[in-house]
Amino acid sequence: MARRPKDRREGRGRLSTIDLLPEDAEPDIVWALEQLRERKLPQNAILEEFNLRLADKGIEPISKSAWNRYAVRKAIQFRRLDEVQRMSAELVSSLGTDGPDQVTVAVAEMLKLATFQVLEAGELKPKEIMELSRAVQSAVSAQKGSAEYRKKLESEAEERLKKAAEAVEEAGAKGGVAPATLKKITSLLTTGAY
Question: For the whole model, what pTM was predicted?
Answer without folding.
Answer: 0.45
